[in-house]
């Protein structure tokens, strides 16, 4: 149970940070992050989410039944997401995914400590 809870916490925190670090013009890049279990979804929609709340809520729903074992995927299929990750926007010159990945171990340590209390 602790593994499941810690993994959900880390997955949601990673997804939230990626979403909130995504540059916003109209909100389409932010609205097209997909959090899935087992395999990545690069599906795109016409979703626009300037605030990021709806996309984060979708991630929380996707992770709500997660059980340790399969991988958690956070993906975006928009054709320009790679350019944004590479720093094409002054809003996120360091990208979104790479900087969040660097924080992964700290998030794991924090979640593990929280579920052991």
Descriptive overview:
The structure is a single chain. The protein has 117 residues and is mainly alpha-helical. It contains six helices and two strands; from the N terminus they run H-H-E-H-E-H-H-H. It has helices at residues 2-21, 28-31, 53-63, 81-85, 97-102, 104-116; strands spanning 33-37, 72-76. Strands 1-2 form a two-stranded antiparallel ribbon. Helix 1 runs antiparallel to helix 3 (53-63) and helix 1 packs antiparallel against helix 6. It is globular and about 40 Å long.
- Calculate the terminal CA-CA distance, rounded to whole Å: 13 Å
How many E-type strands?
2
Q: What profile does the largest beta sheet have? A: 2 strands, antiparallel
**Count of discrete alpha- or pi-helical segments spanning 4 or more residues:** 6
* Nearest-integer average pLDDT: 96
Strand order of the largest sheet: 1-2
Extract low-pLDDT stretches.
none
Assign the structural class, choosing from mainly alpha, mainly beta, alpha/beta, alpha+beta, or little secondary structure. Answer: mainly alpha
The SSE string, one letter per element, is: HHEHEHHH
Strand content: 5-15%
Computed over alpha carbons, the radius of gyration is 14 Å
Helix amount: 40-55%
Give the overall silhouette.
globular
SSE layout and pairings?
Layout: H1 2-21, H2 28-31, E1 33-37, H3 53-63, E2 72-76, H4 81-85, H5 97-102, H6 104-116
Antiparallel strand pairs: 1-2
Question: What's this, in brief?
Answer:
The chain is mainly α and 117 residues long.
Could you name the key traits of this structure?
117 residues, mainly alpha, two-stranded antiparallel sheet, 2 strands, globular
